[in-house]
Amino acid sequence: MPYVLSIVCAVASIALMGVSAFMNFTYVSSIGKTVTEGYALGAASICFDILKGGVPFFIAWGFANRRWPLVSLGSAGFCMLFLVSLSNEIGFLSTNRRAVSGMHTALSTTLVSTESDLKTVDAKLKALEAHRPSTVVNEDLARLKQDRRFTSSAECTNATAIASREFCAAFFILKRELAASMEGERLESARDKMRSVEARLEDKGAGQAADTQADLLSRLLPILPADRVELTWAVSIALVIEFFAAFGLYLSTAWGKAKLEPVKVGYGELQETIPPTKRLQPHRKKEKRRDKLRRIRFADDGSLLLDE
């Protein structure tokens, strides 16, 4: 299980290194004067990210072997790589967040304009006189045009008789109603389109804070204004990405180092490695007893003698 977890974490670390490299490449390549210069800067940022993930291994190996110049140079180089990548990622996150905030601001501005236009349309609709649907009014007009008074008055352009004038007055009332009906239909169609636009804008987040997360955090932490919250967020995310992009691969693989096997050495070799003051000394009483046993010999008559 630890090995599986280590493999999963190593893969995630490599993926995070790729994400960090992509973010750095995107931001750094955008500051080049030409496309070629932008690609050159982006390629350098990718190399920086690869080195950033590998340098901790060299620092650890140098420390284990007590190669202090390697440790010093590696640490200095790692700090430079880390700071450069961190600044690039902060720039990428800040630019991206600023663009998203600007988009929300533009949507909110469009929503305010649409709501103002809706109020104007509603006011115009209320100002219109009562009218029937245009199809009904057109039918009434068509019926009047069949009347002989319509033709005798030259289509109500030369109404001289009393009957013709009364007829034409009714005809023009219908014409005015038809105009109001058509204007009402046009305004209603425009209002429906505006309401549809308003609904789409609200679905995209218009009318809300440009940065909802910064707005919420600034409410929870009144001491931090919204712009400081945005900067703090960008720095925090960049630090997390950079830390695990730099140390994730080392942390996920360093625990599996092979354990040191015990070395078998002889007693003499072991004694040589121990300071003289701490070496094992033979037991004095046992040594005296051995000396006495060595001095014992048999006499000619079979008795035991002890040499002085």
Structural class: mainly alpha
Helix coverage percent? over 70%
Structure summary, number of beta strands: 2
- Read across the widest sheet, the strand sequence of neighbours is 1-2
**Ends apart, CA distance between termini:** 73 Å
| Averaged pLDDT | 79
Global outline: rod-shaped
Low-confidence stretches: 258-265
Give me the strand/helix succession: HHHHHHHHHHEE
Helix run count:
10
Number of domains: 2
Largest sheet, in brief, is: 2 strands, antiparallel
Alpha-carbon Rg, integer = 47 Å
Strand content: under 5%
Describe the model.
Residues 258-265 have low confidence and may be disordered. The chain has two domains: 2-254, no CATH class; 267-306, no CATH class. A hairpin with a 5-residue loop joins strand 1 and strand 2. The chain is 76% helix and 2% strand. The relative contact order is 0.10. Helix 2 (35-64) packs across helix 8. It has helices spanning 2-29, 35-64, 68-127, 134-145, 148-152, 162-203, 212-220, 226-254, 267-273, 284-295; strands at residues 296-298, 304-306. A two-stranded antiparallel ribbon has the order 1-2. The protein is mainly α and 308 residues long. The chain has ten helices and two strands, in the order H-H-H-H-H-H-H-H-H-H-E-E.
Topology:
Elements: H1 2-29, H2 35-64, H3 68-127, H4 134-145, H5 148-152, H6 162-203, H7 212-220, H8 226-254, H9 267-273, H10 284-295, E1 296-298, E2 304-306
Antiparallel strand pairs: 1-2
Helix pairs in contact: 1-2, 1-3, 1-8, 2-3, 2-8, 3-6, 3-8, 4-6, 7-8
Short description:
By secondary structure, the protein is mainly α. It has 2 domains: 2-254, no CATH class; 267-306, no CATH class.
